Amino acid sequence: MGFDEKSRLWKNGKFIDWKDATIHVASHVLHYGSSVFEGIRCYQTNRGSAIFRLKEHVKRLLDSAKIYRMPVSFSEEELREVCREVVRVNNYKEAYIRPLVYRGYHSLGVNPLECPVEVVIMAWHWGAYLGKEALEKGVDVRVSSWHRLAPNTMPALAKAGANYMGSQLIKMEALADGYVEGIGLTASGYVSEGSGENLFVIENTKIYTPPLSASILPGITRDSVIQIAKDLSFEVIEQDIPREKLYIADEVFFTGTAAEVSPIRSVDRIQIGEGKRGPVTTAIQKQLFGILSGETEDKRGWLDYI
To answer: Which CATH class is domain 134-293?
Structure first.
């Protein structure tokens, strides 16, 4: 990932140069993690550039802000239009779009209510999140020693910056031990998700995925994959998944805006299936990427054309 420092971004109602997008070191967000955000992809299709599931992403952003009592002074439609415009302004064909809502500069203390709510939307180019070969050959991951959020500690349904401190611990531990990614377990020891991805397990062509109660983010790519799998006549079951199910599964894959659909070839040095992308993962990838390229009918209206 590399930022385009010649680009322009949108902050609190107007476009500014990338270099001018600064905040004060006493801003609340720096000290207390008071931010929520989204990751959205814009793809170049055979009909032009299109943002994938823009409406759902902006809705989740505002839901996250509502959970944290952060009033946003822009409507859903206004924010959707800014997401389109930040792609247009920078003449991008494809882009990763990052809306961010955070508590800014006023005063410090745990109480954030007097600090202004700032809204920023930026974009840049971002390729394969887990590496160029990950989508085909799969990645090696480990189960982390760090658990995901326990219920009623912090809201897992909010895509909040503070939640990603735990994600960083999972990711850094995995990298330090020679893996590409880590998988966090719930406080009860069931499979939750990766540091920034949802998880799916295939056994006997049935697809299993942890429920929302497993401290997972309600992923939009996750939801898309569930719908696609059902279209392809696969049975999708949302239920608690024991850790050892990962080892004996036929296939396992990650989903996410950044990761898209990335197969997992080993967990804790135990080979999954044949140690490469399996047929179910391949079928789901093909259908999703067909929609994203415009080659497959977008019957649900997931593409928002620029």
So the answer is: alpha beta
